[in-house]
Structure formats: C-alpha cells, structure tokens
UniProtKB/TrEMBL annotation:
Protein name: Protein CbrA
Gene3D superfamilies cross-referenced by the UniProt entry: FAD/NAD(P)-binding domain
Domain FAD-binding positions: 5-167
Pfam short name (any one): FAD_binding_3
UniProt xrefs under InterPro entries: FAD-bd, FAD/NAD-bd_sf, Geranylgeranyl_Rdtase_fam, Geranylgeranyl_reductase
Family listed: Belongs to the CbrA family.
Gene Ontology MF terms in the entry: FAD binding; oxidoreductase activity, acting on the CH-CH group of donors, NAD or NADP as acceptor
Taxonomic superkingdom: Bacteria
Length: 358
C-alpha cells in the first residue's frame, strides 16, 4: 500500500487548490474523488478576487467576462451597477473542475476516482481511508474537501449543519428573444434572489435562499421564476446546499483538515463559495507545508470573523429588503460591487464608500 503524505478527498475547488499547492511543494498527494464535476450544481461565477487567488489562469474555460451587474427588486425594473474593471467571469463548473484538477496533476498530484468513502481510521502516526470499492489508502494527513454534504464530517462524527440552499437550471440562448446580462433579482424568492448568468450558448438561471427553512427554492419555484423572467422553462435542473457554517465549526479533527463547503466557507449574503473554497484549500496546504497543521484555524481566523459579520448583514439585508434593496441599487451598490469583486472586507467597503483610497 502506497503511503501518501496527504489524501485530498474531493476534486472540487477546495480540493484542487489544496492539491495544487501541496504537489507543487513536492508532497506525495492523492486526490480521491467522485467523478469530477459530475452534476455538482453551481452557476460557475468567479469574482475578480478568486481569479487573483488562483495559482494559474483559467482563461481556457471562461465563457463570458462580466463588468456590469443588473440588480432589481423583482419584479420591478433592474438597475445596472458598473464594476471598476472586471467584476467576474462565467464558467461551466464541470469544465472548471476538470481544468483545475489537470493543473494539480501537472504539479504531480495523483488522482483516483471512487464511488465514495467507507471508513476513516486515525492513529498516532497517520490515517487509513477505505473506499466503497474496498481499497485502502494510507497517509499522514487528510484534507476533507468533499462539499456541503461532507461524508468525511459524518464518518468522523462531526456535527452537520444546514445552511443556504440553491437550485439552478439552463435555458438555451436560441430559445430567448433577448440575451440577458448578469442579473440578480432580489425578492424573487423570500430570503434570497433569483439569478440569470449568461454563458454564451445558454443562460444559467437559479434561485438562492440564504438560510435553511426560510423558503423552498424548489423545482416549482424555479420553473415559475424562469417562465416569468425568460418566458420558457429550464432544463438540467438540480439543487444543492451551500456550506455557510464556518463561524460554528471546528476546522480540524486530529489529522483531518476541513476545507471549502465541508468547512462551511461560503459567504451567506450572495452564496459565493468558490472564493472560500480556494482560499481555505490554500490555507490548509500552507498549514501542512509549514509542518504546523495546528496553525490552520489561525490562518482562517480573519475569514471566519468576516463571515460572522456577513451573516449578521445577510439577516438584516433580507429581513429589511424593501429598504435594503433600493439602498443597494441607488446608494451603496457600486461600492459593494467593487468590494465584493475585489475582496474588500465590510469595514473596507464602509471606508471606501466614505471616499477613502484603499
Ligand atoms: C446551485 C448553486 C449555484 C452556485 N453558484 C455559485 C457561483 O456562481 N459562484 C460561487 O462562487 N459559488 C457558487 N455556489 C457555491 C459553490 O458551488 C460551492 O461553495 C463550492 O463549489 C464549494 O467548493 P468545494 O470544493 O468545497 O465543494 P464541491 O464543489 O461540492 O466539491 C466537492 C467534491 O467532492 C467530491 N465528493 C463529494 N462526496 C465525496 C465522497 N464521499 N468521496 C469522494 N469525493 C466526494 C465531489 O464529487 C466534488 O468533486 C453555488 C452553489 C449552488 C448549490
């Protein structure tokens, strides 16, 4: 049995980011994952701050580049908010994950596809992972990057939380009279928003709710929104929870470091999870490479604090939407769009809005 330095479970954005850094530093890395990109629901929007965080360009998988965001209090008319430069890019998530895994492999990471994990055993010197196929792998460390329904969390008896929820589908561009810009329709669903993300040959349409149980972003709600907004029903519909529980979880258990949605690193206001996934994957790698894995929670402390603040803001924002959405459209919108895109903290956005150069 090969003895790996680290097993990364999950080849999503958190897993690929961790695997890239660890393999680039010469560690023996095994990425164990279900089929890469297979049906993971995600609208594939990457903000400027995420593009800056990635170790490589993702130009080959970019479908659209966005500089203007259209924001409405649905169904009222939308207002364009201009970002200074590029706001985000649109990708197809399966293409993005396969591309990022190839980059990690090019650094030396090994990849094995599995149907899932059966057990994890930890002891003083390392850990053993067995898969549903009956294969066993040993390593010194494990990065759990297996998403919001993390099996690693469950196998280790860690608490499971319910966070945000989203559902998405596709509409063919050819079926539309008008190809929309990137649009957020706040209040298209209670406690959240509807989105239209243009992707070249199709539009990704979806519904997001920031907290579990507020409303059901289900197939009927999505069909209804899509019919009213675009005049046609979506195909390829799927939903998934988002990990928004970082302020409440432990980031490590023994030799296991949780990253991405498995650690709850998604910000709850908009449900942007790719940034937190890449960031936490890189921080997990940094802690391991320093041979001080216990530093990982420390490296994540600022992001955890920021997400606590964003959680409070989300509660207020969606509860007071008749006031907060016009405020966003006409007063603070462009500052927030810039801050969101570039990765400014809420405190920095406030200073920027008051005219400070940052
Ligand atoms: C509908 C929807 C739209 C979204 N749109 C956006 C967006 O536009 N922009 C954005 O920033 N965020 C978006 N998000 C959030 C984003 O998708 C997640 O936050 C992000 O994918 C988290 O990355 P991750 O690597 O932690 O987990 P995931 O992307 O969930 O990756 C987990 C990986 O682990 C594998 N895996 C799972 N279980 C096992 C197992 N038992 N054994 C082995 N492998 C396993 C999976 O196959 C997958 O490869 C969206 C979420 C949803 C639900």
């Amino acid at each position: 049995m090969t003895n790996w330095d680290v097993i990364v479970v999950g080849a999503g954005q958190a897993g690929c980011a961790a695997a890239w850094d660890l393999a680039a530093a010469g560690w023996r890395v095994l990425v164990l994952s279900r089929e890469v990109g297979a049906g993971k629901p995600c609208a594939g929007g990457l903000t400027e701050k995420t593009l800056r965080r990635l170790r490589f360009s993702i130009t080959p998988v970019v479908r659209e580049t966005i500089d203007t965001l259209y924001v409405s209090r649905y169904p009222a008319a939308d207002k364009p908010l201009q970002a200074p430069g590029r706001f985000c890019v649109m990708t197809e998530r399966a293409e993005l994950d396969r591309y990022c895994l190839d980059q990690a492999k090019a650094q030396g990471a090994n990849f094995i596809e599995t149907r899932g994990l059966a057990s994890i055993r930890q002891d003083h010197d390392g850990l053993t992972v067995s898969t549903r196929e009956g294969d066993c792998y040993q390593a010194r460390w494990l990065v759990a990057a297996d998403g919001a329904n993390s099996v690693v969390r469950r196998l280790l008896g860690e608490r499971h939380f319910l966070g945000a929820m989203a559902i998405e589908g596709h509409v063919r561009r050819d079926d539309l009279d008008e190809y929309p810009g990137m649009t957020l329709d706040f209040d298209a669903i209670r406690g959240g928003y509807g989105w239209l993300f243009p992707k070249g040959d199709h539009v990704n349409v979806g519904l997001y709710v920031w907290q579990h149980g507020i409303a059901a972003p289900d197939r009927a709600a999505l069909d209804n929104y899509c019919l009213q907004r675009l005049g046609t029903a979506p195909y390829k519909v799927s939903g998934y929870p988002l990990g928004t529980w970082l302020p409440r979880v432990r980031l490590m258990q023994g030799r296991v470091l949780f990253a991405g949605d498995a650690a709850g690193c998604t910000e709850p206001l908009m449900g942007e999870g790719i940034y937190g996934a890449v960031f936490s994957g890189q921080m997990a790698a940094e802690a391991l490479l320093s041979e001080q894995p216990g530093r990982y929670p420390q490296l994540m402390e600022d992001w955890r604090d920021e997400l606590k603040k964003v959680e409070s803001l989300s509660r207020l924002f969606y509860r007071l939407s008749p006031v907060s959405i016009p405020l966003l459209q006409h007063w603070i919108g462009e500052t927030l769009v810039e801050g969101f895109s570039k990765g400014l903290t809420l405190g920095q956005c406030k200073r920027r809005w008051r005219g400070a150069d940052l």
